[in-house]
Write a structure and sequence with these properties.
Layout (H helix, E strand, L loop, with lengths): L2 H7 L4 H11 L3 H17 L10 H18 L1 H14 L5 H18 L4 H11 L5 H8 L3 H21 L1
Length: about 160
């Protein structure tokens, strides 16, 4: 698919994709980020778009998956938690500070893990990937991913409780 054809077929889907993302996400900036990411993904596979019956259906599906991944991601939930903690900071600033401090401790503990465990833990809890996806990306089996994930969680818990 050439650039002009892409502009004709894909760019007009912006409104529909924004509406789809808005139903799942609250933040208008997140919605715009998702729509831009969908366009980027479609651009990268533009040569293969002719194989699909409906480019619109594909774009909506990609939008839905990206939104769900964003909602599942640990980092997104923590940002929302931090935002709500800031709002309630007037009620109890000690609790708010303790929550932020705990998250930063966990992130620093994760950096102490061995490379593969650190990668798998981040992919699972920060990026929101499923075990099967992590196995495919790391070139290992789902069972090996589960074992490494379990060991990494155990180690993070041990180090966190020592603090």
């Amino acid at each position: 698919m050439e650039q002009e054809q892409f502009k004709i077929e894909v760019v007009p889907l912006r409104g529909k994709l924004s509406g789809c993302a808005r139903r799942l996400l609250d933040d208008p900036e997140d919605v715009e980020d998702i729509v831009q990411e969908v366009f980027l993904k479609l651009w990268y596979i533009r040569e293969e778009l002719e194989r699909y019956d409906s480019v619109e259906a594909l774009a909506v599906q990609i939008t839905k998956h990206l939104c769900l991944n964003r909602l599942r991601s640990f980092q997104y939930r923590q940002e929302k938690l931090s935002d709500s903690a800031i709002i309630t900071a007037d009620d109890n600033p000690y609790v708010s500070l303790e929550q932020k401090d705990s998250v930063s401790h966990v992130m620093s503990i994760m950096e102490q893990l061995p490379g593969l465990q650190q990668t798998i833990l981040r992919m699972k809890h920060v990026d929101g990937f499923e075990v099967k996806e992590i196995a495919e990306l790391t070139g290992s089996t789902p069972e090996a991913v589960r074992v490494n994930l379990s060991r990494a969680r155990k180690r993070v818990k041990e180090l966190f409780l020592k603090m």
